[in-house]
Amino acid sequence: MTAATIFQAAAPGGMGTFAIPLLLMFGIMYLLVIMPQQRQRKKMQAMLSALKAGDKIVTSGGIYGTINGIDGESVILKISAEPQVKIRIARAAIAQVEAPEDAK
To answer: Taking the model in full, what pTM does it have?
Structure first.
């Protein structure tokens, strides 16, 4: 008996019985993991590209502030009532935009 004959005796269905569950697992993984991550990434990119001066935001570090200016990939953030208290943060560090008071 050769190795091929032993393999065929052990797996009577051949490669089809092995490939179908593998493809099914990949399809389920795509639907449960990859697709929601892509949606969330697109939503975050849309939010970051729609930023404008005056938006109230929260950074990923938990800092609340108002956008004072946008300079490419960084944002000038006013974090106090004092006009000179401003910080520069990366645009990617913005976690969310707060809803305006009239929308609440």
So the answer is: 0.66
